[in-house]
Sequence to fold (331 residues):
Amino acid sequence: MKLRRLLVSAAAVLVFSGQADAADRFRVGYLRVMDDAQVIAAHEGGFYRKHGLDVEPVEFKSGTDLIKAIVGGQLDTGVLGFTNAVAWASKGANLKVVGGAQHGYHALVVREDSGIKDIADLKGRSLASQAQGSTADVVLKAVVLKSAGLSADDVNIMGVSPQVAVQSLVGKRVDAAFLFEPQASIAQLIAPVRQIYEIGAVWPFPCMVVITSGETLGKRRGDVWKSLDAQREAIDLLQQKPAEAAKLIAAYFIAEPTLKTLRRGDLPREEVIRAAIESQSFSAALSAKEQARMQEIADILREQGTLKPRDGKPFDVRTVLDLSWQEARKL
Fold:
């Protein structure tokens, strides 16, 4: 009888310990795109553990689902397009942008047999892009198409995941695609497509940022800062040692050890991902210029009618910024 009581007590301790561990765990949401590579690299490289944080990375298929999880308290932070934070904050959600992640590099690639030579040629054609209202979607319609005198109604835009966009190009279901990395590079390796435009080279903007809830920031500010420290270290690795970073993250993007290409034979996946990393620009901090660009995008959202602040006034992005971490780190 005494042994049974001891076993029951031991089981209770284990259950309680498990609950405590789960409660202490820090959950970071991410999308499987190069824009969120710092989350993957921080996890695989042990940087979160190095900074004293037990992190559970949680993958999402869309920024919309990710932001809902932050608002609902299922995640502590997430790396995603900042338009999600603006849209929800304008409706009253207590959200904060606490750090930078990746600058906006999105390539416009077209099928070689499409006859499309420039953006103006997209008129009347089909194009695969991201979900409506996403940061990529906003920039595509308000910057890329507008630069050629086109509106969203002039192009048949299909909002899908980057992976489906690549498959649509290969299957000739679309004429063009507006793609993140590494999908932009992968598409050009496995399909007869070519790049005609890169938004990051023309109109730089902070695409991905680190978002948390005001509640999480209030309760776990120290842990949020530890996660940002870890992701900053991962960004340094991506920027300074792309080949080493590629070894950590390549399997997340290409399942097989090699990628079968049209013109270059079988390429090691690490080589493909290294090149994709080198085509990007990451930053843990948000500069004054980037903050101004964020305000510009928020104003575009309001003009499009997708951002409707409850007071009817222009939305001030400073209300969702908490840059105390980068200020403390003197970034």
User: Anything to note?
Assistant: The radius of gyration is 21 Å. The chain has a mean pLDDT of 90.
